[in-house]
Specification:
single chain, eight-stranded mixed beta sheet, five-stranded mixed beta sheet, 13 strands, globular, binds N-hydroxy-L-asparagine, N4-(Beta-N-acetylglucosaminyl)-L-asparaginase, hydrolase activity, acting on carbon-nitrogen (but not peptide) bonds, in linear amides, Ntn_hydrolases_N, Peptidase_T2
């Protein structure tokens, strides 16, 4: 039996799933709910991996990546976007107001301003301090599960049974200027097909991009795998192909049209937030390594 609506998000972002869940409960579309849900984390200054307050690249630029997909298969994305607090909303404008899917950098910023978004300094005093501290050693070592990983990917299933998704991030802390991760790449950090379900990824974006993880999960579900089986297979692709898989995290959450949820990751420590049957919970994910 379908128990709509449902919202799931990477990590324990229950404020985001609560927001999306409240929207869904009052009849909002999956698309509106998913956008409002991830916006909670974009505005959260304590989250140093998403939106305002996100960690900068090694040169001190805060550059944001985000994408959104709607039940009709439409998609929008922005990459290397500076000075806009809600990149997911710009991605939605790209989807709805242009014939394109992805806008990058200066062009994306100009488009956002044209659409009425306001420029804002996103480098908080705190992230500037941490960045300056990092500059003393310039050691680039993504730390498993900790500050480098807090990207929000979210999937919503509304009361009509339609599915929408979004993913938004400031990427890996102290990345090389110009680096774009998996989060804004349709098929990598996010993919959905309203006939089947959707998937979102978080962790080392390079590994997710190389396996086109979210697309893979949706296609596996199409072939009959459960969300859990599909997430496990996608993580195992990375485990089998990347000799250094123990050095980074990759995590996926998937949701099918029945409202079934699955999740899998390389390292223990990942959990996902869920709004289900009116309740919001944190759910530890199964992992390949203990
Ligand atoms: C990236 N996947 O840019 C993102 C990072 C991430 O939690 O998930 N952080 O590679």
């Amino acid at each position: 039996i379908n128990k709509y609506p449902v919202a799931v998000a990477t990590w324990n972002f229950q404020n985001a799933t609560k927001m999306a869940g409240a929207e869904l409960a009052r009849g909002a579309t999956a698309l509106d709910a998913v956008e409002k849900g991830v916006m909670v984390e974009e505005a959260n200054l304590k989250n140093t991996t998403v939106g305002n307050g996100g960690a900068p690249d090694r040169d001190g630029n805060v550059t944001l990546d985000a994408c959104i997909m709607s039940p009709d298969g439409n998609a929008g994305s922005v990459v290397y976007l500076k000075e806009i607090e809600h990149p997911v909303s710009v991605a939605r404008k790209v989807m709805e107001e242009t014939p394109h899917v992805m806008l990058a950098g200066e062009g994306a910023l100009q488009f956002a301003i044209h659409q009425g978004f306001k420029r804002k300094n996103l480098l908080t005093e705190e992230s500037e301090k941490s960045w300056k501290k990092w500059l003393e050693h310039k050691e680039y070592k993504p730390i498993i599960n900790i500050e480098n990983h807090d990207t929000i990917g979210m999937l919503c299933l509304d009361s009509k049974g339609d599915i929408a998704g979004a993913c938004t991030t400031s990427g890996l802390s102290y990345k090389i200027n110009g680096r774009v991760g998996d989060s804004p790449i349709i098929g990598a950090g996010l993919f959905l097909d309203n006939e089947v379900g959707g998937a979102v990824g978080t962790g080392m974006g390079e590994a997710i991009m190389k396996s086109v993880g979210s697309f893979l999960i949706v296609e596996l579900m199409r072939q009959g795998k459960s969300p859990q089986e599909a997430c496990e297979e996608a993580v195992m692709r990375t485990v089998r192909t990347a000799p250094n898989y123990k050095d980074f995290q990759v995590a996926y959450v998937a949701l099918n049209k029945k409202g079934e949820i699955g999740s899998y990751c390389i390292h223990k420590g990942f959990s996902y937030a869920k709004f289900y049957e009116g309740e919001s919970t944190d759910n530890p994910s199964k992992s390949y390594l203990d």
